[in-house]
Write a structure and sequence with these properties.
heterodimer, A: 355 residues, 19 helices, 71% helix, B: 1141 residues, alpha/beta, 10-stranded mixed beta sheet, 8-stranded mixed beta sheet, 13% strand, elongated
Chain lengths: 355, 1141
Amino acid sequence: MHHHIELHELILAIVIVLILVLLLIITVLAYSFYSYRILHNRQSWRQIIEYKIMETIVGSDENDERDKEFAKHLKEPSFRALFLDVLVDSDRKFSGGAKQSINRLFHDFKLEEEAWRKLRHRKAYLVAGGVQELAAMNVEAAIPEITAKLTDSRTAVYQEAQYAIVSFKGYEGLGFLDHFDRPLSDWQQLRLLYSIQDIPESSDLHVDTWLKSSNDSVVIFTLRLIRKFRLMTFYTGVFNLLDHQSPKVRVQAIRTLQSIENSATIQQFISIFDQQPIEVQNEILKAMKVARSRECECFLKDQLWNHTAVSIKISAAEVLVVLGEEQYLRDISQSEDTYDELIQIIKHALQEKKC
Amino acid sequence: MLEFSHIVYEIVVWLFLLYSAAVFIIYTWIGLYAYGAVFRYKHNNTFTDYSIIATNPNAPTFSLIAPAYNEGMTIVENVRSLLSLYYHNLEIIIVNDGSKDDSILKLIESYELEPTSFFVQGNIETKLIRGIYKSKNPAFKKLIVVDKENGGKADALNVGVNISSGDYIVCIDVDCILEQDAILKLAKPFLEQTDKRVIACGGVIRLANNCNVVNGSVVDVNLPKSWLGRTQALEYIRAFILGRMAWSRASGLILISGAFGAFDREIVLACGGYDRNTVGEDMELVVRMRRYMEEQKQAYEVVNIPDPLCWTEVPESKEVLRKQRNRWMRGTMETLWKHRKLMFNPKYGRFGMVSMPYWFFFEFLGPIVEFTGYIVFLIFFILGIINWPFFFALFALVIASGILYSIYAILVDLVSHQVYSKKRDLSTLITTAILEPLYFHPIVVKAGVQGVVDYFRKQHGWGEMTRQGFQQKDANESIWKYFGQRINVSLQSLGPVMLVFFALYMLSVGVEWWWYGRRFTQLSESHAGKYLFFDNLVFLFQSLGCLGIGYLLLQFLSSFWARLLLVISFSFMVVMQFILFLYFGESRNLLGADMFYYSSEEMKQILEASGMLSFTNIALLLLLIVISWVPLWIANKQTFKKSYTSIALLSLGIVSFFISSASILGNGSEKDEFVANASRSKWRYFFESNLSNYVEEHPGMLAMFNKDDDDDAKVLDTKFPFLKKEDTKDFLGTYLQKTTKAPNLVILVIEGLGHAYSSENGYIGNFTPFIGSLKKQSLYWDNNMSSSGRTFSVLPTITGSLPFAMHGFLEQDTLPDNFNLFNILKSNGFNTGFFYGGHSNFDFMKKFMDYNKIDMLIDQAAFGPPYKKLPEKGGESWGYEDQAVFSKLLEVQKVQEHPYFHVLLTLSTHNPFLINNTAHYEQLFDQRVATLDLTPEQKKWALENRTQLVSVLNLDEAMEQFFNEYKKRADFANTIFVITGDHAMPEIPLQSKIDRYHVPLLIYSPLLKGPKTFHNFVSHFDVAPSLLAYYRDNFGIKTPTQVTWIGQGLDKGASAQGDGIAMMQSKNQLIDFVKGSYHLSDGQLYKLDGVLNEDAAADNVKGELSKRFELFKRKNKLFYTQKRLLPDSVYTNFFDRAKKN
């Protein structure tokens, strides 16, 4: 037999929960006002910190009294945290002398320790923050420890470590790609590309290895890298990727080939065109539009007439417009034999040019 | 009736309580989970540099689509704001949805637009496009303006999707103000995708009311001025910061707000774009996209980011707000209905099993449940049945929880994205949180409920469109047509399963009959086979009818679960049919609800002791399960082309409820109860037994059908219906010699000692020579009845003349205070004890003994060598043999000065009737059969039940040895022995219904003046009252002045003057009642003759007996519902006084 819950037991239970809820309301309220105060402080602190940075950059930080006040604030951990944040943020925005001044601030106020502490923390976001800060401060002593983080299992940590190593070492920092087996998100690729400014000629290039990587995202990243630095020597390696199993890789390979094109490129595009899926074919036509080569005129006319996909017809027509074949197109569109869809496509292509 | 109402009241209250608890739990989860999600996002984006994609040609292209309808007043400004968005690869598509104002002209003029030929590549069907415009000015090259015929927001968005060329589309309301970096922030999750494809992403929408907007950007954030606006600000914080973030983290988000959201264009096109037939197109699209991805088995995510990216004006008038919420509710309903297939569908993973049910139960049902709550409150208030302390406590809790949730949302918002950064804003928001439940909430609930009403009234959108596209066609059909088709399809798939079940079940009945034929020779002469077949056939049709209709209803919710449940039910029925008939074959008892009254331990012991838990049996059971499951499962995958088979079977099922086996084959009630039971459908009995048991346990269900009886009202008016003045006369004193010292009392309860085989008058003969001889020296009642057909009630009846409660007195959770021989005699200085060879926990006997605080509890654990256990079967023995139990009593109970009272319960004569030294007793049996003057009929019975009778001979000899030993002791001379059986063995076929209870009763003592046989009808209920009267009147023993005896003493017994006695056949069957010379059994009346034989009787006294029986049942019910038998004062006063003495 079951024990029946009596009404007064139920009321008692409800009242207990109610008391708990009321206590929680009080706690949340108290914490809200406390948080508000902190946030409010942060706003005024931010002004103080920004002023300090400005003074440092301009080189007029001689005011002792303000320095003392600043030092007093620095004892507060949340102020130090904010200071560090603002410094890292500012570091990104400046370069040259200003950047050096900001870097000096890191050292003057011993913020490095704070960053090291974060680096050795257990929580992923703090470790990532530590990596970012040490990289921003250019603390080269941290390179071995950050390198070790490249193999960390947590996405936030290894991504930040990759970015930091590349900021420290530039192109040389990409060595981790040799054995990288996780997907490299587009966002991470763009960050890494963004932070590589040049490729020294003396560099020991691993590009060939990366192009053959089994990790598609590494291949795509490498193609983007080749594109950015126009690494002509890898033309053949890139061309060989046109039969890669992933259409995404092929699309990127087309774009890269276009950017490092040579005299044979257009013919090569034409020769492989039929074996490609529609999205790669579209990409080839885009490449032709940029190349503006008359070599492909016949090929384009053929596509306009005979290809089954509308999107290809449109692209072909658009390239023909770029090649100055408006009259040819106009003739077709005015001919009574032309079917309606083609007329629409041609009009679409022709009028695009007007804008 | 009152009781019925009370149950309804309780159910209603509990449903609301459970729902509230579920809401409480789910919102607690949302709160905690969202906190993690918000901070994870914040931490990951502390130093994010969005500029790397702002101008990067490698960044994906976004197409921003803004439908506009009559926005002429603001459209130019709004477009300017959109053009200033910070993202390079962006195209902005403004769709003028057939505005009646001058929107398009203003746009043409302001942005130097000119019509352009445009080949629309997208293939979603839309209303006609009147023209597509692009600007001559290169500064506006991102802008495309489409002018189209009016078709609603979804249609306009679809035009935008068709035209767009980006990788992703961003759909917004044109009057929204976007943050400059809104696209950058929305783009990040798409760019971060790796193994899971991000198919949609939403951001937080905030309120633009009362904010200062300069050049299309919000420069000064303020809370709205009106409370209506402020409550919506709070609501948006709760929804976006908590709700959506939690669901986004849990991969369960199914709503990206229509005001601002980004989608993967390829998936949108693959799904067929927005649904034009729903008012909730935003939610519907996300659900359809998720469904598409699930069906394509691609990993995906729907993401919400907590950055405030979009500002929108919310309605600040109640009327507009109501319309908006009404629309949201209808949108939710339309989406849920259209995608009902996903609900609880494991194929769709978390989406089907969690997200959709959440939306159904909490987002859709929430306002309805709340509204129902108000109505219920009003009804309860009018009826005056509100428990105000409970109401106020709960009301306060609900309000406080709501406030807590809101304040918590404000806190999370504050520490993550300080939109409202002024101190005043914080305090205003908190005040809003406190006022909201009283002011804003009722409006929203009312609008939601109105939305439900409108939805059904308008039958919105189920019959207009026939557009093709992914999962679009489901919703576009009439609801009746839909029902018709659904039923038809279900009937077609039901046919094969029903046929296979029919075959399997009838096969099992065939096996049942074959099995009985092998075991029971007496069945071959009867027509039992015909009855068995027909009764099962009728039951089979009834089952098909019920389960089939249940399936048809359930498949509307989920066809997968309906099919699975159907196959499980059918297989279970087949397997159970085997178990039920095998049980009957083994025990000759029908299995009913009583199986649920044994604890799992007891059940295990019973099964092990009977040898059923052998490896072979378990293997056979598994095989049986497989054999019954596989064909049904295979049939479940088949469908018939027509639904005729199912319709025919269901119709037969319905018809079968109006016929009974008796009406077709005539009344087959055999005089022989065994044959009658053998020919019944075991399943029907099992089902009906459970059903009636359930109804008994929930008496309110039938209360409304029962009329109150004024005559009985008086009896039931009292709180303690069994309480009466103790007026039992001393009857035994006359037959016993006077002594100065109170004699010892020993009650020997013999397991399964029926009259049929312990008396020469029995239909089998006397197989207890010693007991037979003892009868001649005792007071002997040859017409004595036990109170139950099983052991469970013998102790409370014989020692306390106690009522049964619901399933036996000892089955009650805690035993209510009661008087019985144990506690009364103990309080008078007797030593008390209980002796049993098995586990005393069995049938809760130990509980009774513990309650009575007896001095000696001797059970299996107290024995050891040299005592012998009964032989094992299946590795388990019931316990120690009767010889051991008898000897133990003599060993433990030393001769002593003060008196003692013991009860001894034997064991050897219990199924499986295994005893030690079988050969010896078999020899005795053979001699007995040879020497007794048995009729041929008796002889046949005896030989058929040889095993049982051999064990009876063993018991008899053990008892003889016991008495021989006892006689040698000094205390024997001053001891009274009561000897009786607990019930007759059901394993020996019963000739009549009363035979089950017909057991001998002997009172033997050296103090007896002489032997005497009584022929009046007495029962175990009469034993304790008479014994106590004897002790009270002859030895001054204190007995209570008020008692609750059912019996009236051995002198009166079950005579016509008394109230009659009820008997329980099993723990859930209270169907026998005897009064005077009539026996009412399961509605049938029998006349008892002088030797307790019975024959069906005319119904002239049936009414009276039924009434008496009913009265007893109601008294019994009153007792067990109150859980009290007598007032505390009566009980404590008696024992207090006894203590003082």
